[in-house]
Amino acid sequence: MLVFGFGLGNCMQPLVLALQNAVSPRDIGVATASATFFRQIGGTLGVAIFLSILFSTVGDKVQTAFTDAQSSAAFRSALADPANGETLKGLQGGFTNDSSGLDRLPAVLAHPFKVGFSQSMSVVFLCAAAVVLIGIVVVLFLPQVEPAWRVRPAGRLRRPGRRREVGAGRS
């Protein structure tokens, strides 16, 4: 989270400045507002898409982790305990809606849930890395725009050979 926050924080302002330098001074407000609007839309869609990926894969990943865990003797003995069986039955239908029952399970029984969830998060992070890679490729092909503070306005340029003397009056 620290790396993500540091990277995002150091990208936001330079991107806004680059955008403002790419448009005419008359359109800076519209460009900045549009960038903010599309950033918000992108954030909303990103959260929706990545959570959809997470919750569409978590069920299969947890089931696979349970299948793998059943080969362990400690897991089978914890599963045979009647007190743990009731808690597991309560989790069967609503793990994605309420995972608070995992706290009441022994660590050996909660482990497959945690493994399945972490594997689903890995899928989400790989998808996010692909999106970042696409973004980097797009940025590499953007044209370079000279910062506005380096370019002199056209009205301020002097013509060669026409120096005006200090204190000279107009005629």
Automatic annotation (TrEMBL):
Q: List the SUPFAM superfamilies.
A: MFS general substrate transporter
**Key word NAD present in the record?**
no
Q: Which superkingdom does the taxonomy of this entry point to?
A: Bacteria
What residues form the membrane-spanning segments? 28-55, 123-142
Where does it localize? Membrane
Q: Extract the InterPro entries matched here.
A: MFS_trans_sf
Q: How does it sit in the membrane?
A: Multi-pass membrane protein
Is Membrane there in the keyword field?
yes
Q: Which UniProt keywords apply?
A: Membrane, Transmembrane, Transmembrane helix
Record PANTHER family: COMD, MAJOR FACILITATOR SUPERFAMILY
- Give the protein name, as stated in the record: Major facilitator superfamily (MFS) profile domain-containing protein
